[in-house]
Amino acid sequence: MEETKHPFLSLEHITVRYLDKTLFNSLDWEIQPNEQWAITGPSGSGKTALLNTILGKFNIINGGIRYHFYDQWRKENTVTDPYFNYRNLIALVGHHHTFRNLSNTTTDFYYQQRFNSMDADNSPTVSEYLTITEVPDLVKPLKIAPLMEKRLIKLSNGETRRVMIARALLQQPQLLMLDNPYIGLDVQTRKDFTAMINEIIRNGSTVLLATTPQEMPEHITHVLTLENGAITGKYTRSEFVKLPLPVVADLPLPAMEAQKIAEIVQQHQPASFDTIVRMEDIRVKYGENVILDQINWTVKPNEKWALLGHNGAGKSTLLSLINGDNPQAYANKLWLFDRRRGSGESIWDIKKKIGFVSPELHQYFTSRDNCLQVICSGFTDIIGSTKPATPEQTAIAKAWMEILEIDEHQANPFKQVPESAQRLCLLARALVKNPPLLIFDEPCQGLDQQQKQHFKKVIEMLCDHLPVTLIYVTHYEEELPDCVDKYLRLSGGKMV
């Protein structure tokens, strides 16, 4: 008798709920052996939720998932562990790390910790995290050999992503799921990464990848399109590439009423400065590693700068000096807001003058915080609502929510509103103090094309209305607002 050929994985009429929300309703999908799928769709369409459903994280209230690859693997392998199940053969690499400290007690690292060498020592090295001393061939394309002795907390965004994927590959999963793996990677690393995914597929793993239509490795054979939790299409790769690109409708822009902005800004007029940032021959090193070398840079009021460079070029370290997060500022010739660093001002004096937006900030807010609390935390620069905002502060936060037209989300949990609204909440959080300097560190990371365009235009409109200095970091130069007209590019810790 000929053996029946089974699919690799089947989702059979599944209805999925999470908290009080239906994520998918009677969804059907089948992956055959040797098929490699990409899932694509606008932000909020359900890509991440679908990966988490396959991983078994959400409640399926109707239908079911059949893990045929697991049944097949059990037939071919002896398993003695009574707790072994399909999850042991799946690896998911998501947006955010879940690194634990050395005593294995917490995943909660605080944002400044990566720049404080004593505190960072409580985080494991890459070698300890991966539990390997030599880099096996399987993960060599990820170029993690130079990172092996680095502390996890000190890795850049792109380096963190590479280490998380290495950890997943070392499990030798039957199914490797990657959630937006290109986020935060520079141009060269994106190319290397595509080559690596092609190599993983050649080595026999099945890959399932949530990504954009523009970033699809050539070994992907099929594409699933989603919108609002429903499947809108199942295509072979050749069918999908012939489709017209979806027309990106613009999200409605806030009116940005000049009068309202002027009224808020007048409540807190910042002091005027001759120079916002001045660096002379800046040098930062950890042990033998020189991270920044001979940086000379001056930022004047109202200038709009792009800070560019590959992953690990030194951008985050440079920002940490300006943000007051890096103790090596005291050993360098650095002036912030006309004052030499180390002349008696505290970190909080510096932070009062800076509005900061970065995707990493997402990681540090808990699911308990609502949008208004997140925005009010901008007054104290403390993440998490440790003390309630004053009535005046709450009024300013609400006024910015109105201007950015996100006031409907005031009481909603921050982690549950659409990604574009979360990013505008972080923008409002940066603006509440009316700071003389705004620092945007990859603020569009994780947004879809429509949301990136929207955020960029909102920033351009704000810069028209506010006398503000801007430092903007990105790997995608098309994301830069039109008002940016000055550029600092780093490579290997040096100015180029």
UniProtKB/TrEMBL annotation:
Tagged with keyword Nucleotide-binding: yes
SMART domains per UniProt: AAA
Keywords of the record: ATP-binding, Nucleotide-binding
CDD domains, per the entry: ABC_ATPase
Residue ranges constituting the ABC transporter domain according to the UniProt record: 9-253, 277-496
Gene Ontology MF, one: ATP binding
Top-rank lineage group of the source organism: Bacteria
PROSITE patterns attached to this UniProt entry: ABC_TRANSPORTER_2 (PS50893)
PANTHER family associated with the record: ABC TRANSPORTER I FAMILY MEMBER 10
Protein name: ATP-binding cassette domain-containing protein
